[in-house]
Amino acid sequence: MTGVVAYYTRTGKTRFVAQRLAKALGCRALEISDLKKRMGLIAYLKAARDARGKKRTEIEPKTIDTTGCDLICLGTPVWWSNPTPAMMTLLDNLDVKGKDVVIFGTADRSPERTIDILRKRVEEKGGTIVESFFCLKGSDEERMKVVEDFVDRFRKQSRLHF
């Protein structure tokens, strides 16, 4: 199986999950950088407002070559019940047509709306959501357990081989 785990992180929690997921699936992990300042309280509040307003931002890399990928995993923190502007920008630029996609999020509270927004956008672009999961507030050990449980469940139901 060939795949990629693309993610955006502000505090490192989503990076932690993404890197463990990539290792467990045998995929490469690729961090997306938001070129807009997002650290600090004021910047975070503006970022959350941007997410809620469904704004886009400048990112690096601008897209990912998904040629030959069997699986694309997209990970984002949840800001005010929305995916980050960086993840939405990546998804706008990403070729997911005919691809299997896994969505995951990290959140302090309910991320269902974020998963639904990303699911809708992936399907609009011709991708197929094969699974989603999220890690709620907790320790690294708790997040690791969520990843392990997801990978075990995914391996049992997936037509892809690891």
Describe the structure in your own words.
The protein has 162 residues and is of the alpha/beta class. The chain has one domain (3-154): Rossmann fold (3-Layer(aba) Sandwich), CATH 3.40.50.360. The protein contains 5 helices and 7 strands. It has helices at 13-25, 41-52, 85-93, 112-124, 140-157, and strands at residues 3-8, 28-34, 59-60, 71-79, 82-83, 100-107, 128-136. Helix 1 links the parallel strand 1 and strand 2 (28-34). The longest helix is centred in the C-terminal third of the chain and has 18 residues, at 140-157. The mean pLDDT is 89.
Low-confidence stretches: none
Total number of beta strands: 7
Mean pLDDT: 89
CATH fold type: Rossmann fold
Which second-level CATH architecture applies? 3-Layer(aba) Sandwich
Portion in beta strands: 25-35%
CATH homologous superfamily annotation: Flavodoxin domain
Broad shape: globular
Give the domain tally. Answer: 1
Count of helix runs? 5
State the major sheet: 7 strands, mixed
How helix-rich are the residues, as a percent range?
40-55%
Structural class assignment: alpha/beta
* CATH hierarchy class name: Alpha Beta
Task: Describe the structure using short key phrases.
Rossmann fold, 7 strands, about 160 residues, seven-stranded mixed beta sheet, 5 helices, alpha/beta
